């Protein structure tokens, strides 16, 4: 929802979320990678009529670099940046202490200096940036928020007729937050809303073939994994903590278990077919960064092979058919943890337990609340867990989760490998894109071989739309991606009433041909779009540009 | 109208009403303070760490985590936090929500009225209708009405509320067969309608119809069954025989004598339930997506958003304590026997 109100300096492409011009028309990097120069578009206006200049951009970034609350929320994206300045109204210069390849992707909404300079450092903690009657939030995006408050259940956006990238084709976008999925789908069928998002695969199936409705499960950059306790330590003293299974510290042992996971069956049964079997930590949605596992190395569901690899690594079967460690001691029961909030999580672990049993490893499954599981992982008192990650367009963030620096932080597998860390540092500063891609793929390969995670599936997000009323939704990633909640707000500029679809100005409509002659909204061209978003997780409001902690809607609570 | 113990035998010292009120009010203040302390420590033992929950994929460095904790006072020691909390409460502040970054008092204020409207009107409706059903069943025990009403209220009572809600949505909001969809599927008001205008009020009422009907049906049995059994208890009493002997008509005997005495237990339950109004009805708020206090609380649990939890807990307990106090005071007024 932020992308509706504010612009980013650099946008995400529809094809694969790679950088493309946003507020910045173009940018260049100095040879040493320490200076980035962005050229800001001319003639962009804030919704209150003031011009948007490079000074606003520099102001926003400086605030993130200097402010306490702001930096807590956003500084991640400005790694190694030391200063942001605007030598003239059209130029922004970022100075860095060391090269940072993650730039120019900066999902930091640019806020107006003339509004925010009156909000003090202390007040920012609770500054709402909510619209008052007759006074929408001042932004520069394709729409502006006219109604809605933090944690509210309805949000209303009006179009910005002066948007630099063309006037949107719909007058209004309204969001309704549904707390339960069934009523959201019912509202779509009835026509109370025109779009629902984040609905389960079974609902997608039931909606397919209903007249006037188009539904699909869109590819989304999510992966599901079984993660192992590869050796929890106290980050202060370096001493081992918890009571993880010693065998799981052995990469060979972990890797062998990969052959005992039937990803196809998990996709079929746990995700009702609305997912793809997974293999590495960068989903296929980012096919530029995804490492394709060669056929001879890929995990096939092969219990015999898993057994051979375990034998070779010294985990032979004892007389009772149960495997022992290399010293001949029987292995302890492997404790598998699942999140009770997600049936698929429990499902996956139940399967895993069964497969482990077939290769001579005892296991039991415990389901618990995700915040409790977070604590269990931190204390190291587990052997394996099931969770998921939402991967950002730049792979840096997910790659960093496996570095030693993140032990006790974002790391949940306690994986720590000096060789990997060196590669991570290198890719982060590698300004040559092709070389960087190569490094990123090598890192995935290493993680695949050492298996702190076994990636089980790339899940999708179910969406359904009243295609008798609206058309021209371009998926992201294109093709096959999600229609609505994307990186950036391109699609809000391209979607339009079905009656005016035409050829969608060359935007290939994801919905295919719209031959349906559903009833039109009474107002003809003044159609208001009513978009109901069925979120059981909660959308966080655009609460003040630099403030609210926002993850993408669907990713709202991955905890 | 109240005697202050002059007319009673001296062996039983009755306290005056004033002293009775004083003791009850003091007791309530004591309970409230107890709740304050409990609420603080209760939520601190929840699993999970707000900085990690809210910062997943966002806070990459320990410094960022520390900064977040510092900003929201989570890095202070437990006793320090407790002192801050007490200071806040006594200065009328409830802290800032970790998740929404707005003062908790504002959040609660915003979420309070949907809940009060929903649960309050359901409680009142269920009391009124339930009591009437109870009187009629009790008075004509064994009649066809009695049997069918008892069976149906019990069925409704044992149905899961959310399931009943979903059925009603399917039948009356989406429409089934010949039925058109009369009501909105969920939400509290239409988008773009000013809730304070007349149109807005009607719009909200229209949105609340289904959830209120659902809750009312679910609560009915509680009242009708209690009313029925208290009335049955009264039926054998001597004073009813006397009343009949005086030649009063059946209706008068029922209204003036039996029902009056039988109402007391029902009133108790009503008073207590009114206290629970602000706790919200979590399942119904979820099904109908009504932004009430019940939802606010359950969603805050997953973070855990301590300040919101403490705020809602305090408000909910405060309401129950206040309702209890009111019930006690009324009893003391109507029935001098309880003042001993």
UniProtKB/TrEMBL annotation, chain A:
Pfam families for this protein: SBP_bac_5
Record Gene3D superfamilies: Dipeptide-binding Protein, Domain 3, Periplasmic binding protein-like II
Membrane topology, record value: Lipid-anchor
Subcellular location: Cell membrane
Residues in Solute-binding protein family domain copies: 19-402
InterPro entries membership: Peptide/Ni-bd (IPR030678), SBP_5 (IPR039424), SBP_5_CS (IPR023765), SBP_5_dom (IPR000914)
Segments traversing the membrane: 528-549
Keywords, in A-Z order: Membrane, Signal, Transmembrane, Transmembrane helix, Transport
Record keyword Transport present: yes
Keyword Transmembrane helix attached: yes
UniProt similarity note: Belongs to the bacterial solute-binding protein 5 family.
Protein name from the UniProt record: ABC transporter substrate-binding protein
Organism (species): Angustibacter luteus
TrEMBL record, chain B:
A Pfam family the protein falls into: BPD_transp_1_N
SUPFAM superfamilies in the record: MetI-like
Record's keyword terms, sorted: Cell membrane, Membrane, Transmembrane, Transmembrane helix, Transport
Residue span, ABC transmembrane type-1 domain: 112-331
TM region positions: 21-43, 112-135, 162-184, 204-221, 264-288, 308-334
InterPro entries, per database record: BPD_transp_1_N (IPR045621), MetI-like (IPR000515), MetI-like_sf (IPR035906)
Entry keyword Transmembrane: yes
Top-level taxon of the source organism: Bacteria
PANTHER family reported for this sequence: OLIGOPEPTIDE TRANSPORT SYSTEM PERMEASE PROTEIN
Record family assignment: Belongs to the binding-protein-dependent transport system permease family.
Protein name from the UniProt record: ABC transporter permease
């Amino acid at each position: 929802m932020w992308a509706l109100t504010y612009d980013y300096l650099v946008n995400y492409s529809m094809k694969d979320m790679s950088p493309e011009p946003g507020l910045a028309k173009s940018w260049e990097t100095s040879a040493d990678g320490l200076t980035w120069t962005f050229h800001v578009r001319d003639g962009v206006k804030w919704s209150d009529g003031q011009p948007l200049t490079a000074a606003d951009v520099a102001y926003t970034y400086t605030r993130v670099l200097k402010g306490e609350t702001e930096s807590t929320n956003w500084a991640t994206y400005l790694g190694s940046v030391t200063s942001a300045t605007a030598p003239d109204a059209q130029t922004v210069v970022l100075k860095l202490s060391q090269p940072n390849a993650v730039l120019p992707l900066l999902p930091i909404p640019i806020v107006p200096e003339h509004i925010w300079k009156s909000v003090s450092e202390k007040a920012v903690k609770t500054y709402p940036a909510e619209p008052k009657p007759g006074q929408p939030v001042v932004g520069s995006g394709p729409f502006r928020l006219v109604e809605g408050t933090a944690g509210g259940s309805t949000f209303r956006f009006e179009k910005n007729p002066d948007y630099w990238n063309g006037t949107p084709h719909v007058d209004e976008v309204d969001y309704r937050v549904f707390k339960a999925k069934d009523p959201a789908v019912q509202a779509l069928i009835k026509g109370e809303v025109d779009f629902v998002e984040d609905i389960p695969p079974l609902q997608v199936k039931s909606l397919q073939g209903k007249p006037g409705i188009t539904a699909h499960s869109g590819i989304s950059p999510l992966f599901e994994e079984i993660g192992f306790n590869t050796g929890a330590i106290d980050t202060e003293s370096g001493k081992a903590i918890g009571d993880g299974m010693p065998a799981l510290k052995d990469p060979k042992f972990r890797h062998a278990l990969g052959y005992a996971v039937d990803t196809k069956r998990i996709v079929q049964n746990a995700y009702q077919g609305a997912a793809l079997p997974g293999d590495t930590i960068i989903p296929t949605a980012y096919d530029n960064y995804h490492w394709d596992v060669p056929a001879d190395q890929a995990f096939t569901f092969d219990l015999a092979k898993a057994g051979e690899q375990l034998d070779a690594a010294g985990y032979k079967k004892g007389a009772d058919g149960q495997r022992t460690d290399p010293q001949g001691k029987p292995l302890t029961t492997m404790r598998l943890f699942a999140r009770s909030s997600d049936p698929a999580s429990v499902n996956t672990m139940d399967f895993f337990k069964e497969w482990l049993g077939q290769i001579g490893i005892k296991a039991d499954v415990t389901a618990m609340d995700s915040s409790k599981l977070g604590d269990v992982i931190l204390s190291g008192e587990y052997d394996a867990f099931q969770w998921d990650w939402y991967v950002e367009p730049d792979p840096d963030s997910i790659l960093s989760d496996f570095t030693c620096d993140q032990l006790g932080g974002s790391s949940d597998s306690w994986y720590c490998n000096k060789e990997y860390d060196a590669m991570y540092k290198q890719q982060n500063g590698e300004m040559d894109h092709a070389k960087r891609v190569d490094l990123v793929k090598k890192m995935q390969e290493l993680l695949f071989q050492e298996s702190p995670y076994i990636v089980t599936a790339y899940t999708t997000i179910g969406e359904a739309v009243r295609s008798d009323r609206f058309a021209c939704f371009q998926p992201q990633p294109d093709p096959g991606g999600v229609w609505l909640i994307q990186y950036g707000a391109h699609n809000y500029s391209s979607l339009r009433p079905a009656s005016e679809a035409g050829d969608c100005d060359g935007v290939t409509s994801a919905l295919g041909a719209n031959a349906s002659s559903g009833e039109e909204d009474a107002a003809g061209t003044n159609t208001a779009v009513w978009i109901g978003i069925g979120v059981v997780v909660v959308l966080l409001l655009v609460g003040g540009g630099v403030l609210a902690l926002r993850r993408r809607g669907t990713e709202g609570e991955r905890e | 109208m109240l005697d202050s113990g002059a007319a009673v035998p001296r062996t039983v010292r009755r306290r005056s009403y004033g002293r009775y009120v004083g003791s009850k009010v003091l007791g309530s203040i004591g309970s409230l303070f107890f709740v304050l302390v409990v609420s603080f420590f209760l939520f601190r033992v929840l699993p999970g760490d707000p900085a990690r929950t809210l910062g997943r994929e966002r806070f990459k460095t320990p410094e960022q985590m520390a900064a977040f904790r510092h900003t929201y006072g989570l890095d202070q020691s437990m006793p320090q936090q407790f002192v801050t909390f007490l200071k806040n409460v006594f200065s009328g502040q409830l802290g800032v929500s970790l998740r929404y970054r707005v003062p908790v008092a504002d959040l609660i204020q915003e979420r309070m009225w949907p809940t009060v409207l929903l649960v309050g009107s359901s409680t009142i409706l269920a009391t009124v209708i339930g009591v009437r059903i109870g009187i009629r069943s009790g008075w004509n025990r064994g009649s066809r009405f009695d049997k069918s009403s008892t069976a149906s209220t019990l069925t409704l009572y044992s149905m899961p509320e959310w399931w009943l809600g979903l059925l009603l949505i399917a039948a009356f909001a989406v429409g089934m067969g010949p039925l058109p969809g009369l009501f909105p599927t969920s939400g509290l008001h239409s988008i773009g309608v000013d809730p304070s205008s007349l149109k807005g009020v009607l719009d909200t009422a229209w949105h609340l119809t289904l959830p209120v009907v659902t809750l009312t049906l679910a609560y009915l049995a509680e009242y009708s069954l209690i009313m029925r059994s208290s009335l049955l208890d009264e039926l054998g009493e001597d004073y009813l025989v006397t009343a009949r002997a005086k030649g009063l008509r059946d209706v008068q005997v029922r209204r003036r004598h039996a029902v009056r005495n039988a109402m007391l237990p029902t009133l108790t339950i009503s008073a207590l339930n009114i206290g629970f109004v602000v706790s919200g009805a979590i399942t119904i708020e979820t099904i109908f997506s009504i932004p009430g206090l019940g939802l606010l609380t359950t969603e805050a649990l997953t973070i855990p958003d301590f300040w919101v939890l403490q705020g809602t807990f305090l408000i909910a307990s405060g309401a129950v304590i206040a309702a209890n106090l009111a019930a006690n005071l009324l009893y003391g007024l109507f029935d001098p026997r309880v003042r001993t």
